[in-house]
Amino acid sequence: MYKILTLNNISAAGLDRLPRESYEVASEIAHPDAILLRSYKMHDMDIPETVQAIGRAGAGVNNIPVDQMTEKGIPVFNAPGANSNAVKELVIAGMLMAARNIGPAWKFATSLEGEDAEITRAVESGKKNFVGFELPGRTLGVVGLGAIGVRICNAAHDLGMNVVGYDPSITVKSAWKLKADVEQALSVDDLLSRSDFVTFHVPLNEHTANMINEERIKLMPDNAVVLNFARNGIVDDEAVVKALDDGKLYAYVCDFPSNLLKDHPRCLTLPHLGASTREAEENCAIMVADEIRAWLEDGNIVNS
Ligand code: MLT
């Protein structure tokens, strides 16, 4: 019997891939053979000696001490691409929300009090503050041309946007499943100088931390929009807030709330919802459960 320790809720669709007759799965279990998790931060955890594999039902693995596991020969599996449609949809929604001032407009609409006639009058005079702009003809810069970045390029192109892409390790020409006509940027700076919107789809590491900072914001066209649905720390939030206050940037859409951002009228923050759809949770759980099973039962490595 294989024992699987779950550190977060894992979609039943994934757990169903581990047959009951040979797998015991629980959130508390002695001597586990493998660990399944989503966002639980494992860095300070005492990892049981019996663990032979770790599976993250998501793409990023920065909540797992991967180097330490690799030294011990323990593979860390993840689910690349399994939630990429969910993230793409929210990034597109984020662009539309920023362009149409949905955050401040929603706050305005829900703050109105009084009789319906009074509300109607307030709407008539207040709505002029929320006039937005449309996406066709605007340029979206996509940093990171993996499964998520490529889907966003394709969708933005379908919405009539110009798309410019940059990835430190692949070119636009070699990006997998990229159907849209995407211009190749030569560097992050080059991409920023052309982007009315910029979105990041890279892991957080020493090369990507504060990838967008005060100096780089200056390269962007006026009234640009910054989106961060990747990892907290890729965008220097303080620099972005300053640029919003100076009128340089139009809006910041960030999937990581913080005290700095929460009351800013031009910041739209979300509680890391990019991958939070039923479909994505199921896809990730299925992929990672299959990977764990292939490793435990046959010693096969898929996607680690
Ligand atoms: C991922 O790494 O898959 C996404 O950021 C979503 C998540 O953290 O679960």
TrEMBL record:
<keyword id="KW-0560">Oxidoreductase</keyword>
<protein>
    <submittedName>
        <fullName>D-3-phosphoglycerate dehydrogenase</fullName>
        <ecNumber>1.1.1.95</ecNumber>
    </submittedName>
</protein>
<comment type="similarity">
    <text>Belongs to the D-isomer specific 2-hydroxyacid dehydrogenase family.</text>
</comment>
<feature type="domain" description="D-isomer specific 2-hydroxyacid dehydrogenase catalytic">
    <location>
        <begin position="23"/>
        <end position="304"/>
    </location>
</feature>
<feature type="domain" description="D-isomer specific 2-hydroxyacid dehydrogenase NAD-binding">
    <location>
        <begin position="95"/>
        <end position="274"/>
    </location>
</feature>
<dbReference type="GO" id="GO:0004617">
    <property type="term" value="F:phosphoglycerate dehydrogenase activity"/>
</dbReference>
<dbReference type="GO" id="GO:0051287">
    <property type="term" value="F:NAD binding"/>
</dbReference>
<keyword id="KW-0520">NAD</keyword>
<comment type="pathway">
    <text>Amino-acid biosynthesis.</text>
</comment>
